[in-house]
């Protein structure tokens, strides 16, 4: 089956075109032929396509590499220029924090794949899952930053720790919240596309 609005090939059971967003079913005749029905107006889908073809794939790869880094403790060589054995020797609880953080990043990678699939197939729950992924990202960033700061606060200057360990997760979380706000506006206009079960 082909979309009568944009001409692209679409699944036979589609209700909306996945390319232009036009409604496929229904015999609607507008009161004035020059005025299209609001839910059939083609909306730009550039952010949606970037999200499913680039951002979520890259997010999966980055989350996997980050998970491996935390599970191996490799980030300590870069962050404090101290071998992980020395950091874990002085602060054994850091190993637990790093392992849990690595597991959270593995979950984030799997979640990226799930969200991508749900969005690509216009599933009804796709947007909730997308916002859930954004929330998991914030929790993961802040989890490691806050717990590592608490563990190291008896030994290191708290001001230096906040700059070294918390500034980046806080700024990343703020950026994600701004992104979620923009995505809410973007996807509210396209909510009618996500109807598949």
Secondary-structure map with pairings?
Layout: H1 46-72, H2 75-79, H3 84-90, H4 92-120, H5 126-152, H6 158-188
Helix pairs in contact: 1-4, 3-4, 4-5, 5-6
- Model regions low in confidence, pLDDT < 50 over at least 5 residues: 26-31
Number of domains: 2
Structural class: mainly alpha
Order of helices and strands: HHHHHH
- Helix % is 55-70%
Radius of gyration: 22 Å
Give a concise summary.
The protein is an all-alpha fold and 197 residues long. 64% of the residues lie in helices and 0% in strands.
Features of this protein?
elongated; 197 residues; 6 helices; mainly alpha; 2 domains
Can you describe what's shown?
The chain has 197 residues and is mainly α. The chain has 2 domains: 1-42, no CATH class; 46-193, no CATH class. Helix content is 64%, strand content 0%. It is built from 6 helices and no strands. It has helices at residues 46-72, 75-79, 84-90, 92-120, 126-152, 158-188. Helix 3 crosses helix 4 (92-120) and helix 4 (92-120) runs antiparallel to helix 5 (126-152). The longest helix has 31 residues, at 158-188. The radius of gyration is 22 Å and the shape is elongated. The two termini are 20 Å apart.
């Amino acid at each position: 089956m082909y979309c009568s609005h944009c001409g692209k090939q679409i699944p036979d059971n589609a209700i909306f075109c996945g390319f232009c967003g036009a409604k496929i079913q229904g015999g609607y005749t507008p009161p004035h032929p020059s005025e299209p029905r609001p839910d059939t107006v083609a909306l730009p889908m550039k952010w949606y396509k970037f999200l499913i073809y680039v951002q979520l794939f890259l997010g999966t790869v980055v989350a996997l590499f980050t998970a491996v880094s935390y599970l191996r403790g490799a980030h300590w060589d870069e962050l404090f220029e101290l071998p992980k054995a020395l950091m874990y020797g002085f602060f054994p609880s850091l190993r637990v924090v790093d392992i849990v953080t690595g597991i959270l990043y593995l979950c984030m990678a799997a979640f990226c794949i799930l969200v991508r699939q749900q969005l690509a197939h216009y599933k009804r729950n796709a947007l909730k899952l997308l916002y859930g992924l954004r929330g998991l990202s914030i929790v993961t960033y802040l989890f490691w930053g806050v717990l590592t700061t608490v563990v190291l606060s008896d030994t290191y200057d708290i001001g230096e720790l906040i700059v070294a360990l918390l500034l980046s997760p806080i700024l990343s979380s703020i950026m994600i919240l701004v992104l979620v706000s923009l995505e809410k506006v973007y996807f509210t206009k396209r909510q009618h596309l996500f109807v598949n079960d």
